[in-house]
């Protein structure tokens, strides 16, 4: 490829990258502007005066609120919303990955009736829109006396993440050579030792890929949080930030700052796990 062609390719890729990243850049810019500058016309991408007022209000606004209740601004609950999202995302991911890993291993190593149909039924369940599950799940949570609890949200997220995690881990385990396990069993290792010391390390890229998928789905979900949760201090981030809207006013500074803070955890996670993510999805696609 000539230098001119290479330069043209890089220019196109740079332009596409800028277009894709522009909404995030605009959110960062708006979150750093003082409130009077946000509505100034014409708008500018680079703030004339940088301020952390919106971030300070989100992260430390709860310190001035004595208790949840009337008169407390929504920004006072942002830290609670953030912690709630972390708890339900990590909790649902832990359950989904544990069940999916054990189930996928059993599907690829043992023989039983209906074995071949289970993965396809699971992926079919993932393809069904989650809105179909939300109200039966809500009625189940009411019967179990679990509405408006983080546990109900965790179980709801498991329902929408487990099928795909099972399918991905099943495809990955099918590519793990069974001869290695058989050799270890002949040498006297137990099935549990083989699973823990041999199979899990080999399946780590698939586990990481499935975990990231589950975390992203749980972190970004709005529907289950909107239906299951009522208490202001128990809302997840996706539902909580909607309280920055009201009938006549939108606090764009807080909205953009909260959007940036919501993006940071997933961006950092992607940065650290990108290599494992590509390896996991690639192995599952090729070997499945």
Automatic annotation (TrEMBL):
It is found in: Cell membrane. GO terms for cellular component: plasma membrane. Its main location: membrane. It is a multi-pass membrane protein. The keyword Hydrolase does not apply. The keyword Repeat does not apply. It holds the Pfam family BPD_transp_1. PANTHER family: INNER MEMBRANE ABC TRANSPORTER PERMEASE PROTEIN YCJP, MALTOSE TRANSPORT SYSTEM PERMEASE-RELATED. This is Sugar ABC transporter permease. It comes from Caldovatus sediminis.
